[in-house]
Amino acid sequence: MKVLLVEDDPALAEALGEALGDAGLLLEHTASGGEADFLVRTEAYDAVILDLGLPDGDGSRWLAQWREDGLELPVLVLTARTRWADKAAGFSAGADDYVTKPFETAEVLFRLHALVRRSHGHAHPVIRVGELAFDTHSGSVTLAGRPISLTAQESRLLAYLAHAAPRVVSRSELAEHVYDRDHEPDSNVIDVQVSRLRRKLGAARIETLRGQGYRLVDTDGAP
Q1: Per residue in 103-155, pLDDT tens?
Q2: Chain centroid offset of residue 180 CA
Q3: pTM for the whole structure
Q4: Sequential DSSP letters for 194-223
Q5: N or C: which end of the chain has fewer CB within 10 A?
Q6: What is the mean pLDDT of the segment spanning 190-213?
Q7: Residue-wise DSSP of the chain
Q8: What percent of the chain has pLDDT over 70?
């Protein structure tokens, strides 16, 4: 999952960035609404964490413009403002959820995971595809109840396929959402990592559709 953090407090951005990174998320950071506006229009993100008190304008103004222009990615608002009127303004601008500073980083992660999960149509925190289970909160993976050990990159790749299932995901979409934009891989790198996942999960569990991409499938006969 790739997240854009829009926060002008360096210490807070660093602390939150470390927590998100430790949780296996890819994070890109900017301190201005103008740069955030450019990034959300040119890059692919699974969610945005948006501070309202930005140096070049209120975050809710940027958010309202994104919604007006049809940008539907989930947005979690961060702010030190505690008045209900300020929260209402954030929701009216198009926020999906709201966290008031100071906050626990664990709460931000839980809310962020929930937003992304629901944006893909999953209500339960554990996404199941047959006997494969991916816990969106902890990042743990089990197959028929047996824990599966994955590298950080394998976990990000499987997480995106699990959220998208049963939709087919193209190589370009995987490159945009699973890899850092400064180190986007070629298709051979993705193929190799998919092959490694297949060795751990079963070859038939990740289906290749020629010329289209990959999808996670139920090979266990579950309805």
Answers
A1: 889 999 999 999 999 999 999 999 999 999 999 989 999 999 999 999 988 99
A2: 13
A3: 0.87
A4: HHHHHHHH-GGGEEEETTTEEEE---S---
A5: C
A6: 93
A7: -EEEEE---HHHHHHHHHHHHHTT-EEEEES-HHHHHHHHHHS--SEEEEESEETTEEHHHHHHHHHHTT----EEEEES---HHHHHHHHHHT-SEEEESS--HHHHHHHHHHHHHHHTT--SSEEEETTEEEETTT--EEETTEE----HHHHHHHHHHHHHTTS-B-HHHHHHHHS-GGGPPPHHHHHHHHHHHHHHH-GGGEEEETTTEEEE---S---
A8: 96
Residue 88, pLDDT > 60, answer yes
Measured over the CA atoms of residue 48, residue 53, residue 55 and residue 61, the dihedral's sign is positive
Instruction: Tell me which amino acid residue 17 is.
Output: G
Residue 77 has a pLDDT of: 94
Q: What pLDDT score was predicted for residue 181?
A: 72
